[in-house]
Amino acid sequence: MAEEVKWTDEQKQAIYEKDSNILVAAAAGSGKTAVLVERIINKIINEKIDIDRLLVVTFTNAAASEMRERVLKAIYKKIDENPEDERLQRQVTLLNKASICTIDSFCLDVVRNNFFEIDISQNFRIADTTEIEILQQDVLEELFEEKYESKDENFAKLINTYTGYRDDTPLKELILTIYKYIQSNPYPEKWLDEKIEMFNFNLEECKDFSQTSWGKILLKQIKEIVDDGIIQLKPEVQKLSECDDLKKSYEFLRGNLNQLELLQANLDTWDKAYTIYATMDFGKWTMDRNVKLDEKVNAQKVREKVISTLKSSAEKVLIMDSNEAYQDIINMYDILKKLEGLILDFSQIFAKRKKEKNMVDFSDVEHFALKILLDENGNPTEIAKKYQSKFDEIAIDEYQDSNLVQEYILTSISKGNNIFMVGDVKQSIYKFRQARPDLFLSKYKTYKLKQNKTENDDLKIQLFKNFRSRKEVLDFSNLIFSKIMTEELGELNYTEEEYLNLGADYKDTGEDLKTEIDIITIDNKEDEEEPEELEVEVDENEDTQDEEFKTEVERKEDIEVEAMFVANKIKQLIDNKFQVYDAKAKEKRDIKYKDIVVLLRSTKISAPIFEKEIIKLGIPVFSDSSSEYLESLEIQTIMNLLKIIDNPLQEIPLVATMRSTIGGFTDNELVEIRLSDKYDNFYNTLLKSKKDVSEQLRNKINKFLEQIEMWRKEQEYLSLDELIWKIYNDTGYFNYVGLMRNGELRQANLKMLFERAKQCESISFKGLYNFINYIEKIKTSSKDMDSAKIIGENDDVVRIMSIHKSKGLEFPVVILANSGKQFNLQDLNSKILLHPELGIGVKYIDYDMQITYDTLSKRAIKNKMKIETLSEEMRVLYVALTRAKEKIIITGLAKKEKQDKMLENVEKYDELNIMLLSKAKSYLDWITLVHLYYEQTMESLATWKVLQKEDIIKMCATQEPEREENKTDEILKKLNEFKIEDVKANEIQKLLEYQYKYSDATIIPTKTSVTEIKEMKKSALGEKSKKEAENTKMKQCVFREENESEKENIVSKVEFPKPKFLQSDEKTEISNAEKGTLIHLCMQKLDINKKEYTIQDVKELLDKLVAKKTITEQEANAINIKKIYQFTKSNIWQEMTEAQVVEREKPFYINIPAQEIYEKDLEEKVLVQGVIDLYYISSNGELVLVDFKTDYVPDKNEQILIERYSSQLQLYKRALESATGKRVDKTYIYSTYLEKEIKI
After folding, report:
1. Which CATH architecture group holds 629-781?
2. CA angle, corner 888, sides to 885 and 892, nearest 5?
3. Which residues contact 507 (CB under 8 A, 6 or more apart)?
């Protein structure tokens, strides 16, 4: 017999309290679902309320199904105890029609039962999300076409204001963004009008800008910065005052502090603050050259930081007085009214098109229900009153994720004292769906606990006992959030009242259950690039490191290294048989794969990388983002085939289908077909080629064309889904993909395509052409469809999922990976920002004057939204940490420089404050701040490890799994267990031991660069002694295009450097690699028409490059002008100025037999690319090749350069001779280090 549940006092309150609205603040793992089910059972059993008189609203359909199942199970249990109870038996029947559903389902029920009230068809259907998006695009096209044709002046002004010269897409996207946003409001058009009217000021009646909601937010932001600056400066002023030698510095800094205090005292009004800031002059730091005390240096650093922080904000905010601020906003009113008109036009046409197609979307259903339940004055209608009578209680699960429309709907059908709300505002993570956590918070602040409640008050119940996690998990979570979550940032003070309290009964497993935090340090981005050449002084005493290993390290993507670490951590847990507690069996057991989850903030890019590394170690894994559905091989293959069945003249789909396993044509056969006619489209060429090709290929073509023709005829009378399934059968493709890697998933994807086609046949996309168009529109709108799900909750695999998808789930071991990933704040840079209270934040745009900048309304909303976004990220972190039952492991990448800056901040502030927390850019930043400020407490709850990238790669390299080819004996041994004939056994052995004749050809690249070849040969020769290698150890600097392909081979994601004109001049140091690059650049920019250069001429060249923002001023100062000047005195320069032809930075491609490069018996050729620095045809007709080198040369021994680069120059020479048809007469290396040319 099952144990009777022992409810806590707070849970009992949640089960039995009634006669008022009740808000249950149920923390993570507090058993809220069990409590809600028990409350429903209590209503049925003890209060004698039929279950169909309860409305239970859940967040998802899955939750609704689970709730029904739990209630039914509980009813059956009570029936077993009282088999004669007819009322209980009736509840089983009533449960089928009980209102346990999502808000969408309830609204749909209201609309279907009252459709006649709002003039819609009874048999309307819910449109697919993709179908709605496609229709929206079609409506926009129609609307814009109409506006263009009518030459609408208002529309023309909007086009000029919000679009570029390319197309009108930005305006279309803006309309859709605003339209979708306002749908979460009960009265969308009214909200839009009200918020636009906020811009309709009468300038003469305007008060100080601080009286606006926007002005209050901006002044609050400045106040926080000023307050913080004063806090930082006061101790420094005090220190200087105590030192007689620093009197000048003291007086100067005291003056700065006085100015800040003056500004602080006048931040209550806008114009005062503006005037004072405009006249503030912090002056230049007093130079006591003879005094170099630490107090002075520290004070100067603090002052510079305070002033730069203030300026970075104030110069974007306190830039105009109240009149100017209002004027900007008033000027945008006219544009916004025009935009409002266009949005309303779109809304009307969209609604009309949906009505014509007899379809609605979920937003429509909610607004239709609202229209049925509330009249124009916002009062409940007669229908709403009927629902009020019908439901004795309305229970809302996950209340923190409700929006305003849902609030209005459910309030309209309540009696005023019968709403039971359950949720946890700390888990409100759906703001991007317009969830309103403030609805929960407002009730949380106003509802009373039972001991404080009067008769007229609503009740608040707090469930903070956690029955999911071990003490170690709870203590760590409580520490983190008690230090970072506040009302200002997090929207809730995480005090002891909010703590997660231990409720679970776990037995000791003997494991170390401290939270593990593993930080992988990485270099700054500029240091990560792989250099080619670098002028650098080398310490002869420096230890030589394994150069091959260092190259491997440089070529590993940082995220890939973290994924390797996580994969090995999982392997260790499994191999070491980490013990977890089985609550059902009440005993410890070995950990299983399904006990482990890897949580990521975003899975699109990271999940495939983690999945790949975990698979490498032979660990079964499932990721929700295994692949994008429409980009998967099997879907692309079938879609290409469908395209040519619809229209065989489409060349790319035709060739793709022929190359696939369905067509079975080789590349050589396709070339042979194309040679029949190089100019006609490929389908016609295919028909013509039957006369020219071999008989074998002709038969293949005939068979392929017959199949296509057969399917073309069948698509005229078969439904689309029948045609697709017939193609699967005719080609055997469905079975074929089942044999591929992830075959089960691929087959499931094909089944999903079949089902999607079936669905489209029943809606507005009938027929092959419409279906293809439907899929293409999904692609062009940058959308995708979810891949098929083939995994169940009991499958023993490691799961990789987003934190959002993990909500409501629990796992013994949670690995929060990629915690160093920066928060996504891109939405804050949109042209228009939308906020439920503050309204619309717009840029000031004057098309005629070509002026654009943020209005103060946008600045204010941007600040507010940033805080709200960070608060949401904090709640996402809370969800992640509270998924764990027994152990948390946190991994993340961090730059050492950033960690050092954090340490400086700790020394600057006595306690962790909102200024520091709001500057955080990742979860790891928050966790690191807590560690730095509360190190002793943190160390008692977590192990903190800082790991080097190189160490992880070494560690993982020693743990490579057994290669498949080494398992032949093991497989044969297992086969011997079965009684297989010797002949068959020999055949199997031959297959297992088969070696591809041309295996060498499969591992050589088809394309390489000159540098790669040079490096490969250098490492292969191994001819340098250790000491010589030490003396010539170099880092290399990439400044030629020949390395671009090399970089593409190295990394999966190419990072492009920021253009010079966008780079800050505040970079602390120019590296030697960059100096080499800059010298090379300047040498290329020298004017060959100018025969004589002076030092001054070279300086002027640098000034021009700075003026053009080709280089920065700091870079110009770092260039050794003498090196460039000396080149103009060389023989090469003199010959260049008189040459017939001069070519610089000339890229080339050349095919070279692979055997010449790799010294193996290979027939293939390799495409080699590179860039020739310089070649010219001299006045006497000689072809001269020159390569610039900036290498440091030990002992000025030019022979080192000749040996190092002779093979590279041979390739350049060969390419140049091939391209020009002329023989290269002279080959030189010009060494900037030696300041001379070296003939090869």
Report:
1. Orthogonal Bundle (1.10)
2. 150
3. 581, 586, 587, 588
Q: Provide the token pair at 936.
A: 């002793």
Q: Which residues contact 726 (CB under 8 A, 6 or more apart)?
A: 711, 714, 718
Question: Where does 917-1046 show beta strands of DSSP type E?
Answer: 942-948, 1007-1009
Fold match between 9-124+364-463 and 629-781? no
Hey, which CATH number is domain 9-124+364-463, 3.30.200.20, 3.40.50.300, 3.40.50.1000, 3.30.460.20?
3.40.50.300
DSSP string, 590-615: E--GGGEEEEES--TTHHHHHHHHHH
Instruction: Using alpha carbons, select from 557, 600, 977 the residue that is nearest to residue 819.
Output: 600
CA atoms lying within 13 Å on the CB side of residue 1240? 25
Residue 1222's SS3 state is coil
Dig out the tokens for 1013 from the structure.
């070849």
Q: Report whether 229 contacts 313 (CB < 8 A).
A: no
Q: Per-residue pLDDT tens for 1015-1037?
A: 666 555 444 433 333 333 322 32
Return phi, psi of residue 334, to 5°: -60, -45
Q: What is the three-state SS of 458-474?
A: CEEEEECEECCCCHHHH
Q: Count of CB atoms within 10 A of residue 461's CB? A: 23
Question: 682 with 704: CB under 8 angstroms?
Answer: no
SS3 742: coil
**Can you name the CATH fold of 130-184+326-357?**
Enzyme I; Chain A, domain 2 (1.10.274)
Helix 720-731 crosses helix 743-761 at what angle (to 10 degrees)?
150
The encoded tokens of residue 689 equal 């080629």
For residue 1057, the tally of other CB atoms under 10 A from its CB is 10
Report the C-alpha gap between 1187 and 567 in whole angstroms: 45
Longest dimension (CA), the chain: 116
DSSP state of 289: T
Query: How many Å separate Cα 1077 from the centre of its chain?
Result: 33
> Would you say 547 and 950 are in contact if contact means Cβ atoms under 8 Å apart?
no
| Distance (Å) of CA 967 to CA 105, 117, 568, 962, 989 | 55, 72, 22, 8, 12
Give the closest residue to 831 by CA, choosing from 841, 846, 816. 841
Q: Which two tokens stand for residue 33?
A: 């679902």
What's the rounded Cα separation, in Å, for the pair 849 and 847?
A: 6
Q: In degrees rounded to 5, what are phi and psi of residue 1152?
A: -130, 135
Which of 282-296, 622-636, 781-795, 947-961 shows the lowest mean pLDDT across its residues?
Answer: 781-795
CA atoms within 13 A on the CB side of 310: 26
Taking the CA of residue 2 as centre, how many other CA atoms within 13 Å lie in the half-sphere pointing to its CB? 6
Q: Which residue stretches of 715-797 are H helix?
A: 720-731, 733-738, 743-761, 768-780
pLDDT tens digits along 770-827:
888 888 877 766 555 666 666 666 789 999 999 999 998 999 999 999 999 999 988 8
Contact predicate 489/917, CB 8 Å: yes
Residue 420 forms beta bridges with which residues?
22, 395
Q: How far apart are CA 268 and CA 632, in angstroms?
A: 59
Q: Which fold has domain 468-525+566-624+795-836+865-961?
A: Rossmann fold (3.40.50)
The whole-number pLDDT of residue 786 equals: 61
Backbone angles phi, psi at 1124, to 5 degrees: -70, -45
Q: Measure the CA dihedral 540/545/547/548, to 10°.
A: 160
Q: Can you give the residue ranges of every domain in the chain? A: 9-124+364-463, 130-184+326-357, 209-319, 468-525+566-624+795-836+865-961, 629-781, 965-998, 1007-1023+1069-1239
Architecture per CATH, 1007-1023+1069-1239: Alpha-Beta Complex (3.90)
Give the number of other Cβ atoms within 10 Å of residue 751's Cβ: 14
DSSP character at residue 127: P
Q: What is the pTM of this model?
A: 0.76
> 149, exposed or middle or buried, with CB in 10 Å at 0-12, 13-18, 19+?
exposed
